[in-house]
Specification:
Layout (H helix, E strand, L loop, with lengths): L3 E8 L5 H12 L6 E13 L3 H8 L9 E5 L9 E8 L6 H14 L5 E12 L3 H11 L5 E4 L6
Antiparallel strand pairs: 1-2, 1-3, 2-5, 4-5, 4-6
Amino acid sequence: MGNVFRCYVEKKPGFAVEAEHLFGELRHTLGLTGLTGVRVLRRYDVEGVDAAVYAAARTTVLSEPQVDALWDEVMPAPEGEHTLLAVEALPGQYDQRADSCAQCIQLLTGGERPLAAAAAVYILLGEMSNGELERVKGYLINPVESREAGLDRVE
């Protein structure tokens, strides 16, 4: 099919309600006292469109420029101590976010429906033991519908 375009989208400060809420939950519910912050990024991979369509989709379908920061291909490395965790839908499991994304891009072009994949990338700031990370995974990943995703680029 050709190119796979990848981008990362994160709510700007003041709009990052999900990240703030999750930070509070992880600190209080799981008692992660070493955690100093949480960032939540949405990762999108889109295949089956050309660069012009992707360029249009990235600021209309995949993000809202007023409230979102967006990076193509690579997300910026966070400062200081942190742990990365990516979570995606299991293969064959319906993914609302990816489906909506593909649908909207198809409406944008009036052409073929592209392939889209979505994942949540959590940046857990601060110190965390392996045991604590396992507890976070248990909290964030419902094994019936999702799994830990690789952080590397898929071809």
